[in-house]
TrEMBL record:
Binding-site residues for Mg(2+), renumbered to this chain: 117, 143-144
Gene Ontology process terms (BP): methylation
Subunit structure: Homodimer.
Designated gene of the protein: trmR
Function: Catalyzes the methylation of 5-hydroxyuridine (ho5U) to form 5-methoxyuridine (mo5U) at position 34 in tRNAs.
Catalytic activity: 5-hydroxyuridine(34) in tRNA + S-adenosyl-L-methionine = 5-methoxyuridine(34) in tRNA + S-adenosyl-L-homocysteine + H(+)
Residues at which S-adenosyl-L-methionine binds: 23, 53, 71, 117
InterPro entries given in the database record: SAM-dependent_MTases_sf (IPR029063), SAM_O-MeTrfase (IPR002935), TrmR_methyltr (IPR043675)
Protein known as: tRNA 5-hydroxyuridine methyltransferase
Species of provenance: Sporomusa acidovorans (strain ATCC 49682 / DSM 3132 / Mol)
Taxonomy, superkingdom: Bacteria
Annotated PROSITE patterns: SAM_OMT_I (PS51682)
SUPFAM superfamilies tied to this protein: S-adenosyl-L-methionine-dependent methyltransferases
Length: 202
């Protein structure tokens, strides 16, 4: 645990210094709680950055579990490997380099937990592409869904309006589609937690 916390602290300092967006502390607490409760065997993370949330996921895997994580920025992947090695969890992690929109359809396996934290305008596209890879009861966590409060107050500057529209479409989908049961937490930048009920268990 000390090793985990030491590496997390080092990652926080690195993220702050080099302006890398990572899950914020408040959201990380809830994220860890939900992940620990899910105790997943197989996790898909979309948006690794330097591996901060990846490490939280790895620390809460079921025995023999694995995290598959996707990132397109090669410099960040180098740092993620560095930190995850230092934390002693790299063996439980598969890092895939590439554009998530292209990579997700090709990943194999049935996922017990999916963490969506890459391009905000693509969340619904990612979810649609991962739907046939969800195990019944899978948990889908999406970060930043309230996007600086603009999702609720409709005051986004013009250049962010497409992202706002698409995040709303994501939230509409996971709250209206009967295959999902969703709760939106107003912490950090907003976190949506959806449970997939499966195709046959409505
Ligand atoms: C918010 S950061 C992820 C933070 C990380 N999940 C954490 O909390 O520690 C988003 C990451 O997604 C990556 N990203 C953005 N668009 C992507 C895409 N289309 N495919 C793959 N990665 C993408 C960015 O390079 C960035 O590192």
């Amino acid at each position: 645990m000390d090793r985990l916390n030491a590496v997390l602290t080092e990652m926080e300092a690195y993220a702050e210094k080099y302006n890398v967006p990572i899950i914020n502390r408040e959201s990380a607490q809830l994220f860890t709680k939900i992940t620990a409760e899910a105790n997943p065997k197989l996790v898909l993370e979309i948006g690794t950055a330097i591996g901060y949330s990846t490490l939280l996921l790895a620390a809460n895997l079921a025995p023999g579990g694995k995290v598959v994580t996707i990132e397109q920025d090669e410099e960040r992947i180098v740092m993620a490997k560095h930190f995850l090695t230092k934390a002693g969890v790299l063996e439980q992690i598969e890092i895939i380099t590439g554009n998530a929109g292209e990579v997700v359809p090709a990943v194999g396996g049935k996922y017990d937990l999916v963490f969506i934290d890459a391009a905000k305008g693509q969340y619904l596209d990612y979810l649609r592409k991962v739907m046939d890879k969800l195990s019944p009861g899978a948990v889908i966590i999406a970060d930043n869904v309230l996007f600086r409060g603009w999702i609720l107050n409709n005051e986004a500057p013009r250049r962010f309006r497409t992202i706002v529209k698409r995040l709303k479409a994501y939230l509409d989908f996971v709250t209206c589609d009967p295959r999902f049961k969703t709760k939106v937490y107003h912490i950090g930048d907003g976190m949506a937690v959806s449970r997939y009920r499966g195709e046959t268990n409505l």
